């Protein structure tokens, strides 16, 4: 098929006298004006053209640019959203930014779109090159229905999800063209647009010599700069969790994890970070945590973060607890080798809660938060736990370790006991705890086991906004009986009917170490990684549900009613 981009053209200028045509997308550009119009091209020639243009990119995702398309925006990409036609007449329904741009180019964008075939479906794109000198490449992307809002069946805000997806797809197209800066249409919700841009462009390529070009997203226009910045901060929080989860286990060891988080929090005067060593953990009589850690040559760390965001530093804090197994081999109950590498992300609970606190600090949320992360490896060795061993948790309860691969609950048992020292408003733990959670819900939602409907409502409402959903799971006595019926100790670390209701028996086990009346356990094993289910996240570790935790904390900071 003949493609317009393959035509010879001068390299020095992007304003060409005669318009080419594009058979690939059925555009006939005879009607095109002075500016060269190159729709639907992803060729090397277009990339070179984009590269050769002048650069004026500040490399900051923060500041909005000025309206008016001045020369100092030259060389940027532009992503514009378009709604699906309401009348069914196929006419493009632009966002206000799209309308303004179309007016600026004398209606050429609308004309070109109408030549490109049927209306753009949700998340599908057309690219136009040379429409305006300040934006050599413009990606138009389908947003779906204009009036999309909360979808009661899906338990999320579909309009926001559509924006995140569309913007992520558009920004990646600009990245493929190797254009270092992209302005993004806020699409009526600048926070969602920023999240789509920053999440959609993120990739872990720290250890590769050949990296994808860095693209800096900026808000197109200046009307919603606060919401845009909020979205950038939320998404950067999730990207921090993705980074920590994706990194190899020989890079992110317990101490390196703690140092990374400490470094992120260094600039905040209202945050104190304690990196507790093994001797401290021993003093605390955290026998369950230590029994897992002793199988590895890497020393355990108990990371403790205090964020004092409330006007009163004595206000009861929200306490976050995260499972921090930096590598889970299974221990003596060794896991199969295929896919074991994914267990470098078994610190996803610690990564998401710590990243949520970093984000809360960046947003200056007015509440106190304490973060607790027991960090260690689960390895087989001569010192490792053996099936049938009995260990003693901080609250004195004895635990029979019937399966050394059910190690997360051992760390959490001690960390949850410790969490009760702080007169918490609520204790929320996150853990990649069970394969059974993945079997139950897959990657659709985090499973929430909670003894508090007040807590559940806040988590649920937060997740509708973020699109990183939660689903309530049972904490029945039925499951408790299956872990407390134990031959040698007070409680067994696996249910007596082995695999049945595995996520629920794990939650019932944790409940044995909780006396607080507002506690939630989030099993995030199913949402740990992304293949292609969440379109605005690339394949890899997902960092979910960091944004939901942040939104939840933000809501809690506004909830002045007592939680009864
Ligand atoms: N870290 C795993 C759970 C997991 C599996 C997380 C897959 C993410 C993806 C956990 O430590 C584990 O191995 N759990 C066991 C428990 C079982 C032995 C009762 C499991 O789920 O198989
Ligand atoms: Zn395990
Ligand atoms: Zn694990």
UniProtKB/TrEMBL annotation:
<dbReference type="InterPro" id="IPR011356">
    <property type="entry name" value="Leucine_aapep/pepB"/>
</dbReference>
<keyword id="KW-0460">Magnesium</keyword>
<dbReference type="Pfam" id="PF02789">
    <property type="entry name" value="Peptidase_M17_N"/>
</dbReference>
<keyword id="KW-0378">Hydrolase</keyword>
<keyword id="KW-0862">Zinc</keyword>
<dbReference type="GO" id="GO:0006508">
    <property type="term" value="P:proteolysis"/>
</dbReference>
<dbReference type="GO" id="GO:0070006">
    <property type="term" value="F:metalloaminopeptidase activity"/>
</dbReference>
<keyword id="KW-0963">Cytoplasm</keyword>
<keyword id="KW-0597">Phosphoprotein</keyword>
<comment type="similarity">
    <text>Belongs to the peptidase M17 family.</text>
</comment>
<comment type="subunit">
    <text>Homohexamer.</text>
</comment>
<protein>
    <recommendedName>
        <fullName>Cytosol aminopeptidase</fullName>
        <ecNumber>3.4.11.1</ecNumber>
        <ecNumber>3.4.11.5</ecNumber>
        <ecNumber>3.4.13.23</ecNumber>
    </recommendedName>
</protein>
<dbReference type="GO" id="GO:0005737">
    <property type="term" value="C:cytoplasm"/>
</dbReference>
<dbReference type="GO" id="GO:0030145">
    <property type="term" value="F:manganese ion binding"/>
</dbReference>
<dbReference type="InterPro" id="IPR043472">
    <property type="entry name" value="Macro_dom-like"/>
</dbReference>
<dbReference type="Pfam" id="PF00883">
    <property type="entry name" value="Peptidase_M17"/>
</dbReference>
<keyword id="KW-0007">Acetylation</keyword>
<comment type="function">
    <text>Cytosolic metallopeptidase that catalyzes the removal of unsubstituted N-terminal hydrophobic amino acids from various peptides. The presence of Zn(2+) ions is essential for the peptidase activity, and the association with other cofactors can modulate the substrate spectificity of the enzyme. For instance, in the presence of Mn(2+), it displays a specific Cys-Gly hydrolyzing activity of Cys-Gly-S-conjugates. Involved in the metabolism of glutathione and in the degradation of glutathione S-conjugates, which may play a role in the control of the cell redox status.</text>
</comment>
<dbReference type="InterPro" id="IPR008283">
    <property type="entry name" value="Peptidase_M17_N"/>
</dbReference>
<keyword id="KW-0464">Manganese</keyword>
<keyword id="KW-0479">Metal-binding</keyword>
<dbReference type="InterPro" id="IPR023042">
    <property type="entry name" value="Peptidase_M17_leu_NH2_pept"/>
</dbReference>
<keyword id="KW-0031">Aminopeptidase</keyword>
<dbReference type="InterPro" id="IPR000819">
    <property type="entry name" value="Peptidase_M17_C"/>
</dbReference>
<feature type="domain" description="Cytosol aminopeptidase">
    <location>
        <begin position="403"/>
        <end position="410"/>
    </location>
</feature>
<keyword id="KW-0645">Protease</keyword>
């Amino acid at each position: 098929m003949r493609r317009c981009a393959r035509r010879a053209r001068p390299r020095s200028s992007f304003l060409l006298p005669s318009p080419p045509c594009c058979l690939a997308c059925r555009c006939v550009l005879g009607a095109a004006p002075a500016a060269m119009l190159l729709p639907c091209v992803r060729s090397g020639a277009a990339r070179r053209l984009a590269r050769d243009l002048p650069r004026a990119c500040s490399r900051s995702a923060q500041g909005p640019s000025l309206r008016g398309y001045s020369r100092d925006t030259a060389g940027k990409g532009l992503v514009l959203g378009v709604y699906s036609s309401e009348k069914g007449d196929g006419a493009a329904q632009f966002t206000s930014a799209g309308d303004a741009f179309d007016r600026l180019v004398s209606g050429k964008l609308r004309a070109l779109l109408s030549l490109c075939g049927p209306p753009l479906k949700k998340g599908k794109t057309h690219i136009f090159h040379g429409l305006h000198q300040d934006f050599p490449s413009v990606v138009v992307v389908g947003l779906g229905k204009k009036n999309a809002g909360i979808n009661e069946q899906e338990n999320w805000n579909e309009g926001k999800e559509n924006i995140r997806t569309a913007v992520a797809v558009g920004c990646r197209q600009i990245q493929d063209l190797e254009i270092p800066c992209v302005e993004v249409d806020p699409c009526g919700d600048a926070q969602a647009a920023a999240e789509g841009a920053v999440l959609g462009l993120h990739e872990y390529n720290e250890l590769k010599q050949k990296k994808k070009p860095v693209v800096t997203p900026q808000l197109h226009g200046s009307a919603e700069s606060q919401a845009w910045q909020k979205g950038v901060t939320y998404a950067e929080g999730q990207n921090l969790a993705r980074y920590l989860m994706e990194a190899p286990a020989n890079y992110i060891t317990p101490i390196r994890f703690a140092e990374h988080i400490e470094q992120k929090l260094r600039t905040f005067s209202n945050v104190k970070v304690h990196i507790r060593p093994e001797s401290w953990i021993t003093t605390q009589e955290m026998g369950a945590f230590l029994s897992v850690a002793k199988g590895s040559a890497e020393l355990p760390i108990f990371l403790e973060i205090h964020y004092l965001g409330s006007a009163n530093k004595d206000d009861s804090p929200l306490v976050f607890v995260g499972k921090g197994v930096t590598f889970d081999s299974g221990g003596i109950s060794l896991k199969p080798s295929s896919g074991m590498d994914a267990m470098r992300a078994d610190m996803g609970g610690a990564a998401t809660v710590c990243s949520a606190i970093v984000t809360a600090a960046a947003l200056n949320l007015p509440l106190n938060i304490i973060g607790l992360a027991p960090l260690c490896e689960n390895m087989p060795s001569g010192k490792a736990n053996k099936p049938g061993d009995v260990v003693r948790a901080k609250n004195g309860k004895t635990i029979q370790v019937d399966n050394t691969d059910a190690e997360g609950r051992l760390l959490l048992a001690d960390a949850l006991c410790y969490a009760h020292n702080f007169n918490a408003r609520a204790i929320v733990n996150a853990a990649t705890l069970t394969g059974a959670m993945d079997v139950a819900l897959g990657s659709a939602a985090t499973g929430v086991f909670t003894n508090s409907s007040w807590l559940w409502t806040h988590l649920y409402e937060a997740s509708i906004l973020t699109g990183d959903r939660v689903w309530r799971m049972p904490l029945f006595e039925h499951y408790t009986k299956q872990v407390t019926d134990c031959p040698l100790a007070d409680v067994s670390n696996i249910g007596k009917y082995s695999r049945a209701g595995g996520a629920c028996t794990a939650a019932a086990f944790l409940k044995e170490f909780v006396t607080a009346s507002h506690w939630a356990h989030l099993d995030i094993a199913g949402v740990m990684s992304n293949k292609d289910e969440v379109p605005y996240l690339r394949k890899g570790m997902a960092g979910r549900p960091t944004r939901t935790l942040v939104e939840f904390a933000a809501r809690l900071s506004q909830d002045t009613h007592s939680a009864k």
